[in-house]
Amino acid sequence: MTRGRSDLSQKKRIITSLCVLGIFLGFLYVYHGSIFGSQSHGASALEYGSRSWRKLGSSYLGGDEDNDSKQDESSTKYGQEDGEEDVIMKSFPVCDDRHSELIPCLDRNLIYQMRLKLDLSLMEHYERHCPAPERRYNCLIPPPPGYKVPIKWPQSRDEVWKVNIPHTHLAQEKSDQNWMVVKGEKIVFPGGGTHFHYGADKYIASIANMLNFSKNNLNNEGRLRTVFDVGCGVASFGAYLLSSDIIAMSLAPNDVHQNQIQFALERGIPAYLGVLGTKRLPYPSRSFELAHCSRCRIDWLQRDGILLLELDRLLRPGGYFAYSSPEAYAQDEEDLKIWREMSALVERMCWRIAAKKNQTVIWQKPLTNDCYMEREPGTQPPLCRSDDDPDAVWGVPMEACISTYSDHDHREKGSGLAPWPARLTAPPPRLADFGYSNEMFEKDTELWRHRVENYWNLLSPKIESNTLRNVMDMKSNMGSFAAALKDKDVWVMNVVPEDGPNTLKLIYDRGLIGSVHSWCEAYSTYPRTYDLLHAWTVFSDIEKKECSAEDLLLEMDRILRPTGFIIIRDKQSVVDFVKKYLTALHWEAVAVADSSMDSDQDGDDVVFIIQKKIWLTSESLRDSE
User: Fold this and answer.
1) Top-level EC class, please (predicted)?
2) Which has the closest alpha carbon to 93: 136, 123, 130?
């Protein structure tokens, strides 16, 4: 009898212990989520990202020991209420190594998981599809094993570290075309391409010669400045244009040659991940003097020529399209058929052949609207509707129609732009579209010249003349920040908000490049691609949109190279907010200054300069040993 009561008591104790253990494990699960999943990410983020997290190992170089702590959950509110505790974020989880090249809005895995119904023939799977806030990875993107600080420009044009982009399949696949060659620890770029095996420099000179430009220089005495290279490969065409004072927007999708844009940016060459699919490209109308396609494998005849009409939208009056492809020279029946149909299409678009030689044809767009007005009624493609805005691009579907010129461009018989470099500081004609005066433009140019000078004084203890190459201005307004950097050996990706005045056309008219974007979403670039990010009131702007400032910090960390810099120019409460995350992001404060140093109108702004430390996960260190 005693034995039975004893066994019963023992069973009760076991059951009680199991219940306590279950409660404890449940509490631990909830507590784990409160550490790693912010309020804005929710339970779905745990499901989507938890398998990818990794704690940062003791291998963090130059950092403190990581300690977990509950993060500040008021991501979009910078000011603190009275009595609110000043919580400092101690650590973020680290994504799994397989996400070291994650591009959140161009993530094939996300497309599969969300079961999106996309038309592959229209390249929709290469367009932007961003995760909802609850499905975002709230973790730091790790560098690949053995990551090294990138080789400096101009040496980087010709070689990069193999460990930084450990993909050599293009070297084998394009071995006969001199795209790239693996040599020991480096990948070398001889300057070749699919159509110019013996060097982009000779090919560029041949295009200039075909157009009878002075001294075979494609810049045509400064009149040809901005180029759009579609299907650019590793961007050697754009790389070799730079010495002629020409800047190219090199575009390619994340396709079977998936790392081509990553190589371009690692080399220090302007480039952007995108595709001619169903949406307009994020550039305004009349932005480029030359578009280029060298065997870019695009079906220009599909959907009533809609892709060619997108190029037409982007070209300036009198702009050129250089097309190097078998259709331009091959004699087999299939190529001849494509050539005849393409020739008929561009003729109806009022393009004319400016030159044709060997394997390249160069078409030229008209200078005025005269040809459009003289076409027979019902001619296809039609002119765009009068209410169609050719500069509306963010998420806007392409239209199979011809964008006519403004009255100004029609009267001027062209864009009326000064040659480079005078156009950088000359008031662009399209200022009038915004009601801006020449005086406003000149004041803005001078203001940012002074601000950039002060930035460089603050940065000077940390940088040398070749420290920075790839720069992004996250809110560019009229492009005066980039204009002030003209004498630095850098290029600037100017970003204009999708919901503000579309001043990007002013930026292109100054001979600069950029894209439209919303900072509530991830940018279309690989991790570790920019040396300097300039964020002028960007955090204040996303607070108004009620987007997550924490997500923006993680995105800035993703696209910034280790040892790169961030310049935040914003209100004091924003700077205080960012300071809470420095340890968690492995960033280091470099300098703080108020805007009185500039003696300008933004008297309440604070300038905060940050440097990203270099770190590796313990797994990465083991893999690189």
Assistant:
1) transferase
2) 136
Q: Which long-range contacts (CB under 8 A, 24 or more apart) does 480-483 make?
A: 480/444, 480/445, 480/447, 480/448, 480/449, 481/448, 481/451, 481/452, 481/534, 481/536, 482/507, 482/512, 483/424, 483/425, 483/445, 483/448, 483/449, 483/510, 483/512
Distance CA 484, CA 489 (A): 12
Q: What is the DSSP string of 332-370?
A: SHHHHHHHHHHHHHHHHTT-EEEEEETTEEEEE--SSSH
**Domain 200-417, what fold?**
Rossmann fold (3.40.50)
With beta carbons less than 8 A apart as the criterion, state whether 296 and 340 touch.
Answer: no
Q: Single out the residue of 403, 193, 151 nearest to residue 292, CA to CA.
A: 193
Instruction: Supply 427's token pair.
Output: 């008031």
Domain 424-623 adopts which CATH fold?
A: Rossmann fold (3.40.50)
Q: Which amino acid is at 453?
A: E
Q: How far apart are CA 114 and CA 322, in angstroms?
A: 39
Lowest-confidence region among 58-62, 313-317, 320-324, 388-392: 58-62
What does the pLDDT average to over 402-424? 93
- Domain assignments of the chain as residue spans, ordered by start: 200-417, 424-623
Structure tokens at 104: 């959140």
State which amino acid sits at residue 364: Q
Peptide bond into 154 cis (omega under 30): yes
Task: Give CA 443 to chain center in angstroms.
Answer: 29
Pairing of β 247-252 and β 181-183: unpaired
Cβ burial of 294 (10 Å; 0-12, 13-18, 19+) is: buried
Residue-wise burial string across 574-598, b where 16 or more C-beta atoms lie within 10 A, e elsewhere: bbebbbbbbbbbbbeebbebebeeb
Q: How many CB atoms lie within 10 A of CB 388?
A: 14
